[in-house]
Q: What sequence folds into this?
C-alpha cells in the first residue's frame, strides 16, 4: 500500500469525526483531487467517500454494541451530523435500524445489565 494512503487512513481512523472532504484528503497528500481518487481506489478498493462512510458506520455499530451512549450522540461522535442519512445508511449496511441493532446486540445487553447492577 502507498505509504501516503496508509498514513491518511490512520489519520482518518484517529479522527473519524472530523469534517473529511476529498479536497482536504487530497490536499494533505499534496496531489490533485483526480489523482487522489485514482490512488485511493487503487490502494483501498473503493472511493474515499465510500471508505469514510463505511468506517463511520462500523464505528457507530461498535459504539451501539459497547456503550450506553444515545444514538444521536453516537452519530455525532462518528461525524455524521445528518440523522436521516445516518439512519438510511446504517439500515442499508446492517439490515436494521440502529435502535433495533442495539436491542439485538448481545454485547450491549450484557453491558446494560452490568451497569444496572452497580
A:
Amino acid at each position: 500500500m502507498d505509504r501516503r494512503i496508509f498514513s491518511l487512513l490512520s489519520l482518518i481512523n484517529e479522527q473519524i469525526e472530523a469534517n473529511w472532504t476529498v479536497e482536504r484528503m487530497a490536499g494533505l497528500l499534496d496531489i490533485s483531487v483526480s489523482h487522489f481518487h485514482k490512488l485511493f481506489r487503487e490502494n483501498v478498493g473503493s472511493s474515499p467517500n465510500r471508505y469514510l462512510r463505511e468506517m463511520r458506520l462500523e464505528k457507530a455499530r461498535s459504539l451501539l454494541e459497547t456503550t450506553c451512549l444515545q444514538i444521536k450522540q453516537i452519530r455525532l461522535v462518528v461525524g455524521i451530523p445528518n440523522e436521516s442519512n445516518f439512519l438510511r445508511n446504517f439500515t442499508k449496511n446492517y439490515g436494521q435500524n440502529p435502535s433495533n441493532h442495539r436491542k439485538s446486540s448481545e454485547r450491549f445487553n450484557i453491558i446494560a445489565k452490568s451497569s444496572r447492577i452497580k
